[in-house]
Automatic annotation (TrEMBL):
Gene name linked to the record: infC
Protein's name according to its UniProt entry: Translation initiation factor IF-3
Family the UniProt entry places it in: Belongs to the IF-3 family.
GO biological process, one term: ribosome disassembly
Residues covered by the Translation initiation factor 3 N-terminal domain: 19-88
Source organism phylogeny: Bacteria, Bacillati, Bacillota, Clostridia, Halanaerobiales
Pfam families per record: IF3_C (PF00707), IF3_N (PF05198)
Major localisation: cytoplasm
GO CC terms of this entry: cytosol; membrane
Keyword Endoplasmic reticulum listed: no
Subunit structure: Monomer.
Translation initiation factor 3 C-terminal domain boundaries: 96-179
Locations listed in the record: Cytoplasm
Length: 183
């Protein structure tokens, strides 16, 4: 099972290149292992030459007329492609969305705890979704929510930027902050 999965992964990386006996064309444009163009040869001649060097004949440009084939070590090529893809994946930055919830009547200490949480998320390169819940008659005083959001923006402006301004969605006021380095 393991070999099947890793083989499938390798095939996806190399995008189903035809190798040796799987090449269908009668004539091919041949390139040797140093990258020198040999010319148009019959498939049998090209396969013989690849076998002479102990390497594989790989169809690198099937859409060309005649198809371009290269003499190379196919196993080594697949390995290098997998290595490149793994390296690209490692350098990729995955951004998560973390949420900070508050109420309108939040006290200073509780606000500071939520602020510290938001700052920690921004330092970890995560987006922060800030949500303020309005209950009952608090809906009459939306300006308190906007003031709270402005206070949070002011205290995180050194490490984060506002991606979307505070807006009401039902009984909740929402806003998104992104890390400074991402913009």
């Amino acid at each position: 099972m393991f070999c099947f999965i890793s083989l499938r992964r390798c095939i996806n990386i190399v995008k189903d290149l035809r190798v040796n006996d799987r090449i269908r064309s009668r004539k091919v444009r041949l390139i040797d292992q140093e990258g020198e163009q040999i010319g148009i040869k019959s498939l049998d001649d090209a396969l013989d030459r690849a076998a002479e060097y102990g390497m594989d004949l790989v169809e690198v440009a099937p859409q060309a007329n005649p198809p371009v084939c290269r003499i190379m070590d196919y196993g080594k090529y697949k390995y290098e492609q997998a290595k490149k893809e793994k390296e690209a994946k490692k350098n990729q930055n995955v951004m998560n969305v973390k949420e900070v919830q508050m109420g309108v009547k939040i006290e200073d200490h509780d606000f500071n705890v939520k602020l510290k949480q938001a700052r920690r998320f921004l330092n970890n390169k995560d987006k922060v979704k800030v949500r303020i819940r309005f209950r009952g008659r608090e809906m009459m005083h939306k300006e308190l929510g906007y003031d709270l959001m402005d206070r949070l923006i002011e205290q995180t402006k050194d490490i984060g930027k506002v991606e979307s301004k505070p807006k009401m969605e039902g009984r909740n006021m929402m806003m998104f902050l992104t890390p400074e380095s991402d913009k």
